[in-house]
Design a protein that fits this description.
The protein is an alpha+beta fold. The chain has helices spanning 7-19, 26-38, 40-54, 61-72, 75-87, 94-102, 257-265, 292-302, and strands at residues 114-115, 122-125, 131-134, 139-144, 149-155, 157-161, 173-177, 180-193, 198-211, 216-220, 223-228, 231-232, 236-237, 249-256, 271-274, 282-288, 305-311, 314-319. It contains eight helices and 18 strands. The protein is globular and about 65 Å long.
Length: 320
């Protein structure tokens, strides 16, 4: 299910990102036009990126009315959100209101069709031949129709490897969260719900983000970012830990012990902590996520640490 690199598409995505930057210059636009006109493959790749972006266009009038009705039911919440947007200099337009209302639509409150227990990692084949993985304590709703391919992440973390859609006409693939919508462009990526934001990491292809309040960006392979309803943070290198758990193992290649322990803690009941004195130690290991005791044994054998048990459910990793 891996996606081959499409060089014109990569170039088109890079140009799209550059031209949608507020600092884009007239010279850059001239260079883009030269690139665009240099080859039919370039113009075709640009149309594909542009079409994907336009998939985030305002909803149809009927859908917009439904969304606005739903939004009106939550007027007090929207009023406070509008105030928050003023702080960051934004403006809540009709399209953004529709998206805010869309978050409240009944179908997005359906029970998840896929879920995992806390210690569990599972995978499913999607109807289009793609793959879906859920990390521990996660839940998602898979909703495929003649009009779209949509996955709503309701809890935890997912990873997707997309497949080309054989349906005619081809359907967009979206991942929906409370903070916004992600549009996959031939890609492998992970999405994780955190306390106050969503973490996106892209490992192949590109993913477009549209937040609930209308902020947009395009994230290429090898990059990631955090976003919330009203803002998108600066992009950073993709987090390798977020792309390594789908096989049921945590693959650490020099990650600090503190991060590794925090990841293992998500897959077990009780308290698992790391003493700050050893949190900096680099870890190179492949650790089972469904057997926390074995994972701690492997770490203790490889590093100058010991596993201290205050209670059977309270474990601290300390200096040896």
């Amino acid at each position: 299910m891996s996606t081959p690199v499409d060089e014109p598409l990569e170039q088109a995505a890079a140009w799209f990102t550059a031209l949608h930057d507020d600092a884009a210059t007239a010279r850059q636009r001239e260079q883009w036009q030269q690139w665009h006109d240099a080859s039919p493959r370039h113009s075709a790749a640009w149309r594909r990126i542009d079409a994907a972006w336009n998939a985030f266009a305002p909803l149809s009038p009927a859908a917009t009315r439904v969304a606005l009705d739903a939004a009106n039911e939550h007027q007090q919440a929207l009023r406070s959100r509008r105030q928050a947007l003023k702080v960051v200099g934004g403006a809540l337009g009709v399209g953004a209101v529709a998206l805010a209302g869309w978050q409240q639509l009944p179908q997005l409150r359906q029970r998840p069709s896929h879920r995992t227990a806390q210690h569990e990692v599972r995978s499913w084949s999607l109807p289009d031949g793609g793959g879906l993985w859920l990390n521990g304590a996660s839940a998602a709703l898979v909703d495929y129709s003649d009009a779209w391919r949509r996955i709503q992440l309701q809890r935890g973390e997912l990873l997707i490897e997309t497949a080309a859609d054989t349906h005619q006409p081809a359907r967009n693939l979206f991942v929906d969260t409370a903070a916004g919508r992600l549009h996959a462009l031939g890609t492998r990526f992970s999405v994780r719900l955190e306390d106050d934001c969503v973490a996106l990491n892209v490992y192949a292809g590109h993913v477009a983000i549209l937040t609930t309040y209308g902020r947009r960006t395009l994230v290429p392979a090898g990059h990631g970012c955090h976003f919330a309803a009203g803002h998108i943070d600066t992009q950073h290198p993709a987090d390798p830990l977020r792309g390594s758990w789908q096989g049921g193992r945590l693959i650490a290649e020099g990650e600090p012990l503190g991060r590794v322990i925090a990841e293992l803690a998500m897959h077990r009941h009780g308290v698992l902590r790391c003493d700050p004195r050893v949190a900096h130690l680099p870890v190179v290991a492949s650790l089972p996520l469904d057997d926390g005791e074995r994972a701690l044994e492997l770490l203790a054998a490889a590093l100058p640490i010991r596993v201290h048990r205050r209670f059977h459910w309270w474990v601290t990793v300390q200096p040896r």
